[in-house]
Each structure stands twice: as structure tokens, then as C-alpha cells.
Amino acid sequence: MARFGASRAKPTWRYAASRRTSHVSDTSTPLRGDGVPNFELPNVGAGPDPFSLAAAASDSDTDAVVLLFQRDYHCGNCRKQVQAIADRYDEFEALNAAVVSVLPEPADRTSEWQDSYDLPFALLADPTAEVSDAYDQPVRFGVLGSLHDLVGRMPVAMVLDVRSGEPVVAYTYEGRLPADRPEIDDLLEAIRALRTD
What we know:
With 197 residues, this protein is an alpha/beta fold.
């Protein structure tokens, strides 16, 4: 299966993934461009519900979409990450970037995060982890890791360039450990780098 990016040691600033042939769901299809999978998921945070990547990409006021694939409802590092980004969300908005956090949980459970943190960005419920899997979110420990997201699923952050209306992966950071995440400044720099093209 094609990977959408690179490891922590070498973030990918420009990456063209191979076209994906599988669909995320019956209502989701791969977008054109570099084959970034389109998806629609329930949104319990700010913005439209459901959230559609195609709709976000077609918004002329948005230059980038930052996707944060979280590990699990119980993940303390995931919770810290969304809170830290919420504290600096005005910097993302100033760069015309939308942040989207994807939690592999049902909507009712995901809404508990929104109730606790009042996030100013989209918080999506991915109860079957179909979208996370379509974006190749790593799962470690084989069968055991696939049975419980907190044990196996690793964090991923992506910046999608959507200026053309078709998402293209511009940056990917795959955590090798549960606490391994990009610095917020690195995400902001990846978005700024789009403007120099």
C-alpha cells in the first residue's frame, strides 16, 4: 500500500502519493490531484456537520487543511495536541488554514472532547477508523494493536495544499511513538512554505 509521507526524521514538504483505487466509504471517492482520499465524517466541533474534505478543498478562502489523525479517546498526548493547537489557532487562521482533528471514536464519545476543550476547529468522529486507515495511519503491534487503538494506532499530522481546489499532500509527520508529534511551529512553517511556491 502506498504511504502518504515520510518518517519523523525527514518530513515531506512536497510529496505526490500514488493514486488510490479503494474508496473510503460508499459516499467517498478519491479526489483528483495526487489521489488524496476524499471523505465525509460527522463533525462535533466547529464548522459544518458533516465535514467533507471536498467541500473544504473547494473553499476559496482556504489554502491548506491540516489533518491530525489521533490515536484514541483516552490518549493524553492527543488531548494535549488539540489543546495546544486551539491555543494558537489564530495563527492557522491567519494563514488561511483549516485544522481538522480525526478521532477513531463514535460521535458521542468524540463530542466529550469538544465539551471539555471547546475546540475552534473541526473535530471528526471516525468510528470504524476507515478514514484513518485510508490515509495509512500506522498501527503497531500487529493483531493486538489493531484490536485497541490506544495500544496500536500512532499519530499522524498532514498538511494538504488545497489552493487549486484539489488536495495535494504537502507535509506528513508520522509519529513513531505515542508522544511523537510535530511541533506546532513545524506545521505552521509547512503552511507558510506553500506561499513561496
